[in-house]
Amino acid sequence: MDMSDKDEFAAKKMDLDWRISVSNPIVSYPPENPMPGPSQMMDSFRQNLWHDGGGFNVHTDRGTSSRGNVDRPVEMGWNMAQFPADSGFIERAAKFSFFGCGSFGEMMMNQQSLGGPQSTGLFVQDTQNQIGVATGSNQVDGPLKDATKVVKENGSSNVSEDSQSSGGNGHDDAKCMEISSKRFNAKKRKRTGKDSEHRGQQSGEEEEEDKNEKDEQSPNSNANKTNSGKQASDTLKDGYIHMRARRGQATNSHSLAERVRREKISERMKFLQDLVPGCDKVTGKAVMLDEIINYVQSLQCQIEFLSMKLSAVNPVLDYNLESLLAKDALQVPAPILPQDMSMLYPPLSHHSQKGFMQPNISSMSILNGGLIRQERHGYESDQHNVVHMNHETDTAPNHEDATANRKVEP
Amino acid sequence: MSFIKVLILKFSSLRTQTMASSDKTINTDVPEKDVFAIHFLQSLSNLTTQNPFNSPDTTNYRARKIKKAAYVSMAKAAGGSSRLWSRALLGRAAKENNKIVRFARRKRKVTWKISSKRRSDQRAPEATDRLRNLVPGGGTMETSKLMEETAHYIKCLSMQVKVMQCLVDGLSPK
Q1: To bridge A17 with a disulfide, which of A127, A244, B1, B76 should be the other Cys (CB 3.0-4.6 Å)?
Q2: Are A321 and B41 an interchain contact pair (Cβ–Cβ within 8 Å)?
């Protein structure tokens, strides 16, 4: 009964929670089969078995080894003779909120063709790392490694034992894994009740929908990931790695780094979103990027347009600019004016020095009517800063001087 | 001199509306508008003295020079060589002027790009490429760095636009 229920759990929810810390009774069963009672579970299981007879057959064709594994739990279910033997285990398993102890998971995996690749014990183990999703036997190693990683993170010695004991490749190892996982699950599983079951349900549903192909990342939806990911990181704090592999995501170092990078990019996108006006509603990187590009282009066009306008205004500007600038320069402490000018321009030429500029700017409002003629040249910067201040309206002589002293700009 | 006063008032008003441009996680400080104004005005004066009021056909030419001066002054004002895009801008301008501008070589982090992704690339690569073309110096940046530079660039651009707008308003004949 319990086993059948577990089977359904495992079947429907591919990734099992890997929580080791807490063992909580299974509060809710998979939505597809909400059956609290063991007997009911058994019945449903039996029915499922009947229905899945084809699945069984198919699965048995896969490999004798797996079949052997399957047989055991299946027979357990069928015969119910072994139930008492495992009753304690089963009851405990029944209490687990997340579906599937290893055994059941294995059973389900073995029994049903869950998305192609041989669902081995991996399937059972790795909910959190999403590896459990029916990765083929080839990938036993990876999930096992991940399992061990998770184990370490959780810091449960028993778990590590189990995973390590089961650590191996191939079907035989898968078998070992199954066994060990079963053991492990029986003993260890502590669940943070609601979280796990909630997650389990989510992932289970998704598992059911998505066939776990070789791609480790496909099955879980983003919502599930983020949701359970957060929960995962919340509950398990003592992990080695900074970037916690969220539930249902690969723990490959590459993908981790990639994920970090992606999150960096998305963080900056959000920042940009605040910058660009009118982009609150926009979601999604592509649209956002288009908006940003449009905005930058519009800004550049604005600058161009304004520069044209300025050029039209420019003839009038000459005198004003000079006076303005001279006035500005005048704000520099008067006695040291020449040196200040020289000090003023080099910073401007090389790098902006806001602190330096501020005092000058602050006194800009003061109109100074002094007559100052400054010529500066010889900086390696692009621009000459020649400031002339002339009360006379005739600026021709100034220009002559200026042109004489300046470098020619192409 | 009245328009000068107006201009100054405008600048002071600009000063009061300084952008709060510091983000906690991403540092995109942009100097105040006054700095931009100073730089720009200086470059403009430079331009005007160089090309005194002359032939009308140079309006376009002058406009382009003004634009270039605007960008260069913006790059200078916005932090010389501390920003990649400003350095690229200044380098570009210097090249046009047949000048070699040297910047202090910064320690470049090894940029590695993930060429292959497991999933299909959902990042709209065309958009990022376009962004690279838009933002100066964006050809060899990582995407995250590109985003940062874009943010700073946008801020500086908008500041420059405001400065120029004020200038135009202040100096346009009444």
Answers
A1: A127
A2: yes
Residue-wise pLDDT tens digits, B56-99: 566 677 777 777 777 777 777 766 666 677 777 777 777 776 66
pLDDT of residue A211: 40
- Tokens 């459990």 locate to A132
CA B71 to each of CA A327, A331, A378: distance values in angstroms, whole numbers, following the listed order? 24, 26, 22
Q: Give yes or no for a contact between A241 and A256, defined as CB atoms under 8 angstroms apart.
A: yes
**pTM attached to this predicted model:** 0.43
Q: Which residues 134-173 of chain B have a CB within 8 Å of chain A?
A: 134-135, 143-144, 147-148, 150-151, 153-155, 157-158, 160-161, 164-165, 167-168, 171-173
Cα atoms found within 13 Å of the Cα of residue A65, Cβ hemisphere only? 15
Strands of A96-204 (E only): list them.
none
* pLDDT of A276: 82
Question: CA of A288, closest CA in chain B: separation in Å?
Answer: 9
Taking the CA atoms of residue B151, residue B154, residue B158 and residue B164 in that order, the dihedral angle to the nearest 10 degrees is 130
- In 3D, which of A243, B113, A22, A144 has the Cα closest to residue A136? A144
Among all chains, which residue has been given the structure tokens 């990683």? Answer: A149
* A359 pLDDT above the threshold of 50: no
CA distance A106 to A70: 7
- 3 state SS of A362: helix
Q: Which of B166, B150, B136 is nearest to B68 (CA)?
A: B136
